[in-house]
Design goal:
Elements lengths: L10 H15 L4 H8 L3 H8 L7 H11 L4 H12 L7 H9 L2 E6 L10 H11 L5 H15 L9 E7 H5 L5 H16 L4 E5 L12 E6 L6 E6 L2 E5 L2 H17 L3 H25 L1
Parallel strand pairs: 1-2, 2-3
Antiparallel strand pairs: 1-4, 4-5, 5-6
Helix pairs in contact: 1-3, 1-5, 2-3, 4-5, 7-8, 10-12
């Protein structure tokens, strides 16, 4: 992907810039360095352009080949510590911050950019029940920080399509769902997000088997991010992105209108509120 990341905001981009600077100072072409590292010159170019993620073993090899006294390992450690996201999601998170438009479909969960703290915390706790509370709080903070991009002056146009199952699954309990669904409604009313819901009565649809995030950029081709349990994949191959885009359009066409979706979200919030009130009354 031909896209410039700001080294001052992206440790991965800084690592790549340092690779290019020190390679050129050593008088080596990308192909020449690649031969020494037992990789292609194209791969070196992808590292320099921050398309590929830095790796610890590659950092150590570069320090040895370019005689940098451990510089690349130190920068790699900065990259590792600075990124608060899972390895497979780091690049996708950076790209979301650069996107002009973000279009997401989720079959089961509220997308990360739309989650409340309690909803995110419930997800993290259920994923790894033995994880320390402090680690969960760090992950919640990282997720909320990422969501701040919707508040930017130049925020991307954000469009989410949710399966009705997202509204009906009581993540964290009724009270958590009340706050989460009210947050979705507030985002819609404040025009920070366009959200549609695919109702159960729509039956089968084109994206029942997984979540997807489509991103467009000012100076780079569209990209799709497809995620599964513990893994994620960025796709910029044009034919595949076109296939995902068509599937997204079909799901969007099967969804309720934005107005009807808002009404359904508000109705579901009321149902959870009633359930929470009944639970309190029974205590």
């Amino acid at each position: 992907m031909a896209m410039e990341l700001d080294p001052s905001h992206s440790p991965r981009a800084f690592w790549g810039k340092e690779l290019k600077r020190l390679r050129e100072e050593a008088g080596l072409s990308q192909d020449a360095l690649g031969r020494v590292l037992f990789c292609s010159g194209a791969y070196v170019g992808q590292l320099e352009a921050a398309i590929r993620n830095p790796q610890e073993d590659m950092s150590a090899r570069l320090d040895d080949v370019l005689k940098t006294g451990g510089h690349f390992l130190r920068v790699y450690e900065m990259y590792r510590k600075a990124s608060r996201y899972a390895d497979y999601f780091r690049h996708a998170a950076e790209l979301q911050g650069l996107a002009l438009t973000i279009s997401e479909f989720s079959p089961l969960l509220v997308p990360g950019l739309l989650q409340t703290p309690d909803y995110a915390r419930a997800l993290f706790e259920s994923a790894q029940p033995l994880r320390k509370a402090a680690e969960n709080e760090e992950m919640v903070a990282a997720r909320l920080a990422r969501a701040e991009l919707l508040d930017r002056e130049n925020a991307p146009m954000y469009w989410a399509v949710l399966d009705e199952a997202v509204l009906r699954r009581p993540v964290g309990g009724a009270s958590v769902m009340v706050r989460q669904l009210k947050h979705l409604a507030d985002l819609i009313r404040s025009r920070k997000a366009l959200i549609q819901v695919v109702p159960f009565v729509a039956g089968a649809h084109a994206l029942m088997d997984g979540s997807i995030c489509l991103m467009t950029f000012e100076d780079a081709p569209p990209t799709a991010y497809v995620e599964g349990p513990g893994t994620g994949n960025l796709v910029d191959e044009p034919s595949l992105v076109a296939t995902y885009s068509l599937a997204y359009d079909l799901v969007r066409a099967a969804a309720l209108s934005p107005e009807a979706s808002l009404a359904l979200i508000a109705s579901a919030a009321e149902d959870y509120a009633d359930a929470a009130n009944r639970a309190v009354a029974q205590e």
